[in-house]
Amino acid sequence: MAMRIALGHIDAYDDRIGTFARQLGLSGLQFHSPRDLPGTGGCWSTAELAALRRRCEEAGLRIEGLENVPAAHFFRIQRGLPGRDEQIDGFCRTLRNMAATGYDLLGYNWLPTYVWRTTMDAPGRGGAAVTGFDLDRAAAGNALAGYKLTPDEPITEPITAEQSWAHHQYFLDAVLPVAEAEGVRLALHPDDPPVEEPLGGATRIFTSPAALAEAWRRSGGSPAWGLDLCLGTVSEMAGQAAAEEIIRTLGPAGKIFYVHFRDVKGTVPRFAECFLGEGNLDVPGVVDLLDAVGFDGFVIDDHVPALVGDAGTWSDTSAEAYISRGRSYAIGYLQGVLDARGR
């Protein structure tokens, strides 16, 4: 298929979400640890996966992929804690159940303390609310604490970079053979924010283009491993230069499975999210480069500013908050860029 836009980062599906997608001219959806998949048995079951697919298809919409199993299914794997083998078994059951119900893509993150922000309502353009990060303020805690993918259990023993690499390799060695056998692709999300300093007791490792290339190397060339290219996180690393390096390195090998399209102003150690077109990235140039390296997957909107009348960013995952002016702006902007380039 050609490069295309899907309605992404959906936390829960209902008829309003489907109507919103169709009104925007979209036919594909991507889900983000949705409430529709509670996974009460330690994995996503075939029954709940099939039910979600059926509801979307009845509305004329296809599911492009899923990302992020619940934190309760994954945090022991990320942290190398006792019980990780049981969670890996559940993850593999999820892969098998996905394959049995027609899903072929699952995004994952390697963030033991999840995404970290120091403010959720920084003033953006025209007073729009955006999230921000300032390393000097990170010791005060994560402003995203309480979000559904932020584990409830604090880290009691610090996790070093060497330990995190080892934990990630243990995970890959266990799950990639299953993913390959089932025909399900796994897509790694870069670390957000991409800082070397520990956050909440965990050192982050996927913080640079070189680290993502190393992750590819450590996958052993598995066809089941690739990248969820979160351009906002990559922009946090080094702006346009980082985006171009990653696309040129992993793109020609077909290792960019899908794209989160957002941006920031500034780079680590401090940045703020922003509207597409006003941040670090040359958005049309990024689209051109993706096309040049043969990317033919889907791109999604991701974090968006909260405009006047919108609910706050991240804090509300209801359908009412999701169907926002900020999201409509982001998707319309991307549609304009892709249309102008005949994509």
TrEMBL record:
Keywords of the record: Iron, Lyase, Manganese
Protein EC: 4.2.1.8
One term of GO molecular function: mannonate dehydratase activity
Keyword Lipid metabolism among record annotations: no
Cofactors: Fe(2+); Mn(2+)
Claim: Manganese is one of the keywords in the record: yes
Catalytic activity: D-mannonate = 2-dehydro-3-deoxy-D-gluconate + H2O
InterPro entries according to UniProt: Man_deHydtase, Xyl_isomerase-like_sf
Cited Gene3D superfamilies: Divalent-metal-dependent TIM barrel enzymes
Pathways involved: Carbohydrate metabolism; pentose and glucuronate interconversion
Pfam families reported for this sequence: UxuA
GO terms (BP aspect): D-glucuronate catabolic process
Family of this protein: Belongs to the mannonate dehydratase family.
Job description of the protein: Catalyzes the dehydration of D-mannonate.
Name assigned to this protein: mannonate dehydratase
